[in-house]
Amino acid sequence: MSLKAISSKDAASLDKDLMEIGGWSLDQLMELAGLSVSQAVHRVHPPSAGKNILVVCGPGNNGKSTSRGDGLVAARHLAQYGYEPSVYYPKEGKNELYQRLKTQLDNLSVPFITDFPVAIKSADLLVDAIFGFSFGGPLRDPFPTIISQIEAASVPVLSVDAPSSWDIEGGPPKEGPGSKFMPEYLISLTAPKPCVKYYQGRHFLGGRFLTKSITEKYGLDLPNYPGIDQIVEVGVDAEGRL
């Protein structure tokens, strides 16, 4: 299977096309992204393996893309699946969309934790939804400390779109927080990003909503999704081709 990676610039343009030409709303894109993330969690870590899922969300970016509401949506779906998720959200998005996602979690009694070092010790799996495809560094507080704590922890990690701290084009930083961060699982949303060529774990793709015109415009060659699944597992080779 050979899938094309898409640059952060093209990923942003694709999101814009989906909303301005395709008729999609930001809410819908967040929902589909979060649903894909939740299915990936269930695939690699069913509730029988441990229900305590810690979802770490990064700052929203003024509602211009799905980042990082997908973590909040995933936590909601995980609660409905029978997990016991908790959310660490150190820099909350202030616009109405993020506040509504937070209200939905409050209504399901999903806790928002403040003591991250304690929470990470009891987690069965951590979802890294801190940064999206637009991240280019440098890390700003409090995220260097958070990423260092995730990197040092023994809990398995599923990262969304890219392991947080990684450059979307260049992969892991050469030194400092994240330089040795290699999560067990990665889910790419819509299409893989170039940094997948540095990744060495199990890799999933979630993007079962793209139209033929969009895939042709961006030269995407997406796989067939089995059954009713929103995700498909794909491999990664040394040249960044999937």
TrEMBL record:
<feature type="binding site">
    <location>
        <position position="164"/>
    </location>
    <ligand>
        <name>K(+)</name>
    </ligand>
</feature>
<feature type="binding site">
    <location>
        <position position="62"/>
    </location>
    <ligand>
        <name>K(+)</name>
    </ligand>
</feature>
<feature type="binding site">
    <location>
        <position position="128"/>
    </location>
    <ligand>
        <name>K(+)</name>
    </ligand>
</feature>
<keyword id="KW-0479">Metal-binding</keyword>
<feature type="binding site">
    <location>
        <position position="161"/>
    </location>
    <ligand>
        <name>(6S)-NADPHX</name>
    </ligand>
</feature>
<dbReference type="GO" id="GO:0046872">
    <property type="term" value="F:metal ion binding"/>
</dbReference>
<protein>
    <recommendedName>
        <fullName>NAD(P)H-hydrate epimerase</fullName>
        <ecNumber>5.1.99.6</ecNumber>
    </recommendedName>
</protein>
<dbReference type="Pfam" id="PF03853">
    <property type="entry name" value="YjeF_N"/>
</dbReference>
<dbReference type="GO" id="GO:0005739">
    <property type="term" value="C:mitochondrion"/>
</dbReference>
<dbReference type="InterPro" id="IPR036652">
    <property type="entry name" value="YjeF_N_dom_sf"/>
</dbReference>
<dbReference type="InterPro" id="IPR004443">
    <property type="entry name" value="YjeF_N_dom"/>
</dbReference>
<feature type="binding site">
    <location>
        <begin position="132"/>
        <end position="138"/>
    </location>
    <ligand>
        <name>(6S)-NADPHX</name>
    </ligand>
</feature>
<keyword id="KW-0496">Mitochondrion</keyword>
<keyword id="KW-0413">Isomerase</keyword>
<dbReference type="GO" id="GO:0052856">
    <property type="term" value="F:NAD(P)HX epimerase activity"/>
</dbReference>
<keyword id="KW-0630">Potassium</keyword>
<feature type="domain" description="YjeF N-terminal">
    <location>
        <begin position="11"/>
        <end position="222"/>
    </location>
</feature>
<keyword id="KW-0521">NADP</keyword>
<keyword id="KW-0963">Cytoplasm</keyword>
<dbReference type="InterPro" id="IPR032976">
    <property type="entry name" value="YJEFN_prot_NAXE-like"/>
</dbReference>
<keyword id="KW-0547">Nucleotide-binding</keyword>
<keyword id="KW-0520">NAD</keyword>
<dbReference type="GO" id="GO:0000166">
    <property type="term" value="F:nucleotide binding"/>
</dbReference>
<comment type="similarity">
    <text>Belongs to the NnrE/AIBP family.</text>
</comment>
<comment type="function">
    <text>Catalyzes the epimerization of the S- and R-forms of NAD(P)HX, a damaged form of NAD(P)H that is a result of enzymatic or heat-dependent hydration. This is a prerequisite for the S-specific NAD(P)H-hydrate dehydratase to allow the repair of both epimers of NAD(P)HX.</text>
</comment>
